[in-house]
Amino acid sequence: MIMTSYTMSRFLLFSSVGIGSYLTGSYVERNHKKHEKEDYVKDLLTQVYSKPGLPIFGTVSAASPIPLEEKSTVPSNVSRIGQIMKFGFPGLDNVRSYDDYVLSYDRRTRVAHWVFEHLTAERVKHNDAVDRSKCDFKPDDSIHPFFRSLNSDYKGSGFDRGHLAAAGNHKAEQKHCEQTFFLTNMAPQVGVGFNRDKWNNLERHIRKLTKEYPNVYCCTGPLYLPRKESDGKLYVKYQVIGSNNVAVPTHFYKVVVMETADKRLEMEAYVLPNQKIDDQTPLSMYQVPPETIERAAGLLFFDKISRSNLSKINGKKV
Fold first, then answer.
1. What is the spatial distance between Cα 252 and Cα 296, in angstroms, rounded to a whole number?
2. What are phi and psi of 99, to 5 degrees?
3. 309 and 259 Cβ atoms separated by less than 8 Å
4. DSSP 198-223
5. N or C: which end of the chain has fewer CB within 10 A?
6. What is the pLDDT of residues 158-209, one digit of tens each?
């Protein structure tokens, strides 16, 4: 079939229009998707900045949304939180930041996943202006009422309200000490032989580390470890107390990083059973490889530090 010049011209004209329309349409669609993506990211960031529990807010109460452009509204203790979490967050589930420590709260167990502290000799030394006896155990109002633990849960349970971030670690200001008495920072602990004895010994040991190391970073939390029953099978079993079913951990851990004056890093890791412990048992008996705690807790501690950069773990050279 022979195509005339008129037919050829019309064919080329329609082809050009079609291709041009396709290219224009593709450009518009790509540009539209680009704007959609930018809007999505902007919305996401806005949502993140408006969350009440994220570490940036440094508050224990529900925070008002902070617009991205109003940077001056961010509380001044953000830098303190940066110091505490210098080597990374083990997780970001229901994070609550207080003036001198940070925690991640487990709404299911009513006990924190982890609590992080940064200790120095200056912050843990005796301060006449700080009086622990004036501190009261109190619920944390930043937690939804469905998921809070209450003082009534502990009453008559036979367990102490055991600190995770120790009150004795926060002596710089009265307010810092008082904030360690929020029930979000508590866990049911055996009293005599544990909370008041061996666990207290461990807390004192970690405070003593500040005499040797300028910076001490401590992560504390509960564990719910399996145990073999009479049928030969392993079960994770733990008691709950009170009307809010506050979980009683089977064990507690502390993972500590010490920073020397010349920036070398050392680590110690402990797991203690939540039971009466013979006071004569040395704390070194409860030192474990940090990896075992990470596997049991489902958390990665100090993830910004490569283990190969640690000069010692539990007193032994790496």
1. 11
2. -65, -30
3. no
4. HHHHHHHHHHHGGGT-SEEEEEEEEE
5. N
6. 999 999 999 999 999 999 999 999 999 999 999 999 999 999 999 999 999 9
User: What is the helix (H) or strand (E) element at residue 266, kind and residue range?
Assistant: strand 265-273
Residue 311: CATH number of its domain: 3.40.570.10
Among the options 163, 170, 176, 251, which is catalytic?
A: 163
- Residue 49 scores a pLDDT above 50: no
Identify the three-state secondary structure at position 27: helix
Q: Across the strands, what pairs with 103?
A: 96, 115
* Residue 163 designated active-site: yes
Query: Pairing state of beta strands 240-241 and 215-223?
Result: unpaired
Domain count within the chain: 2
Single-letter code of the amino acid located at 86: K
Pairing of strands 159-163, 95-97: unpaired
- Please, are residues 97 and 81 in contact by the beta-carbon 8 Å criterion? yes
**Residue 4 burial (C-beta neighbours within 10 Å; 0-12, 13-18, 19+):** exposed
Q: CB of 266 within 8 A of CB of 312?
A: yes
The pLDDT score that the predictor gives to residue 77 is 74
List the single range of 48-52, 63-67, 256-260, 282-286 with lowest mean pLDDT.
63-67
Closest CA to 301 of 11, 12, 59, 104: 104
Asked whether residue 10 is assigned to any structural domain, the reply reads: no
| Domain of 299, in residue numbers | 55-317
